């Protein structure tokens, strides 16, 4: 059981749903190359600004039955779903990890993954404005929580045999290897696919996303994340192919699977989930 007071968990949910409201703005505007700050939220049908009392996460959607107060145009339930999802992610993170470095790390990574997932589902792109800063931020956070003196001593003591152990103990090393291998492995798979099938298999967006995940969670997380996301992607892809009525002409974007596997890694540690 978590020893985090219920009040904190509730607070985390409310904060998360407010952040979720901002994520909605990012999901709508980033792929359209619009500013995420100005103008303030407005109905995309009548352009009338949404009043602050109509902009309460989740509740406003329910009270207004998903419609604009001015013109009555319907809003997608996706807005309320993303607010609720982000609230749950915040609450679960605080419940599991309390006030810790992990919580800080995950509350930066997981909202980014939510934005990436929904943009990729709709537009088939993973914006560089998320992945590039994400890679840098993941690395900086890892550098900050690395005990460099300890690292030097440990490498001297146990040598190269226990490299994985050393890597796991030192976030900076783990993060740098995560970026290189996360980006590199997918790049290699993508290039091989291109050479063999003579067409592009994996978008560069996925490569940068895995590099970002590697920066935050380290190289030791990547095996789990690549295996699980590939498995899920294959299963869902096959299910959609069998169900031809869905009219799916092309495959499905890979970003959501990578994001889901990375989120699952945050909460399960990955390895314990496999075995
Ligand atoms: Zn309207």
Q: Gist?
A:
The protein is mainly alpha-helical and 275 residues long. The protein has twelve helices and no strands.
Q: How would you explain this protein's 3D organization?
A:
By secondary structure, this protein is an all-alpha fold. The chain has two domains: 1-98, no CATH class; 100-275, no CATH class. It is built from twelve helices and no strands. Helix 1 (6-29) crosses helix 3 (78-97), helix 3 (78-97) packs antiparallel against helix 4 and helix 5 (128-144) runs parallel beside helix 9. The two termini are 22 Å apart. The model has no long low-confidence stretch (mean pLDDT 86). The protein binds zinc ion. Zinc ion binds next to loops.
Residue ranges: pLDDT <50 for 5 or more in a row?
Answer: none
Helix content: 55-70%
Shape: globular
Number of domains: 2
Can you lay out the helices and strands and say which pair or pack?
Elements: H1 6-29, H2 59-63, H3 78-97, H4 101-123, H5 128-144, H6 148-158, H7 163-169, H8 171-197, H9 204-217, H10 222-242, H11 255-268, H12 271-274
Helix pairs in contact: 1-3, 1-4, 3-4, 4-5, 4-11, 5-8, 5-9, 8-9, 9-11, 10-11
This protein binds zinc ion.
């Amino acid at each position: 059981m978590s020893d985090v007071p219920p009040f904190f968990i509730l607070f985390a949910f409310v904060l998360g749903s407010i952040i979720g409201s901002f994520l909605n703005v990012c999901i709508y505007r980033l792929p359209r190359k619009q500013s995420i700050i100005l103008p303030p939220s407005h109905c995309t049908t009548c352009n009338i600004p949404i009043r602050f009392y109509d902009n309460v996460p989740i509740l406003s959607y329910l009270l207004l039955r998903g419609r604009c107060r001015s013109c009555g145009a319907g809003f997608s339930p996706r807005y309320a779903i993303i607010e609720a999802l982000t609230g749950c992610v915040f609450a679960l993170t605080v419940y599991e990890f309390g006030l810790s470095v992990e919580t800080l790390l995950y509350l930066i990574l997981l909202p980014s993954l939510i934005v990436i997932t929904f943009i990729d589902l709709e537009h088939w792109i993973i914006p560089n404005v998320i992945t590039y800063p994400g890679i840098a931020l993941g690395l900086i956070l890892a550098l900050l929580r690395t005990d460099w003196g300890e690292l030097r001593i440990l490498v001297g003591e146990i040598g190269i045999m226990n490299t994985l152990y050393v890597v796991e103990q030192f976030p900076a090393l783990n993060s740098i290897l995560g970026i290189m291998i996360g980006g590199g492995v997918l790049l290699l798979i993508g290039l091989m696919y291109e050479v063999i099938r003579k067409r592009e298999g994996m978008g560069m967006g996925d490569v940068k996303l895995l590099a970002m995940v590697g920066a935050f969670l380290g190289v030791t997380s990547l095996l789990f994340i690549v295996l699980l996301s590939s498995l899920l992607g294959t299963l869902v892809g096959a299910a959609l192919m069998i169900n031809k009525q869905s009219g799916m002409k092309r495959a499905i974007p890979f970003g959501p699977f990578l994001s889901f596997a990375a989120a699952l890694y945050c909460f399960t540690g990955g390895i314990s989930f496999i075995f």
